[in-house]
Amino acid sequence: MIYDSLKRLLDIIGSAVGLVILSPIFLLVAIAIKVDSPGPVFADTPMRAGNDGTLFKIYKFRSMVKNAHELLEKNPKLLVEYKRNSYKIFNDPRITRVGKILRRYSVDEFPQLFNILKGEMSLVGPRAYYPYELEEQQKKYPSSRKYVKIILSGKPGLTGVWQVTGRSEINFDKRVKMDASYVKKKSIIYDFWLILKTIPAVLYGRGAI
Asked: Which of 58, 144, 149, 155 pairs as cysteine with 122 (C-beta 3.0–4.6 A)?
């Protein structure tokens, strides 16, 4: 389709230009992360579900302490809150000082430009969900199954509808409905509009945790 070809071209150009422009910021962020806490620069996160459910490794700056996911599994109280709040933890004790700043302004997401250049993600698209998140939440919200199927027919995005309209303030059932609606729309103009909407959303840090 013309839309898919044009979207991929924009992804390649946009991610390549973004990586060049943001390279000084990448260096500064890497130094800040290493100085602030022990551990790698990039987060060791579980695999995400991409196009057609294909699993891929997402690139993110580390905003939490080393082995954060292992600590979550070993802390029953945190694990309960994590699942109760649609896989979010408010005032998460695992987040580092630098990590709080990175997450508030979505700087931790910038390395996903590498995923976009590789073709695993797009500049605009649905959220990159965890496989276990999709499985467990579809049990909780059975009506969401039809939306998840639509979502997995496209690529996850660095930004998207839910990212510019509240992010963590939106629960799974509403989020997947929004993402599915985006996938079905297939509009480059709408993509550009969402990219423009992303700028104030990031600056104000709405819904970031």
From this structure: 155
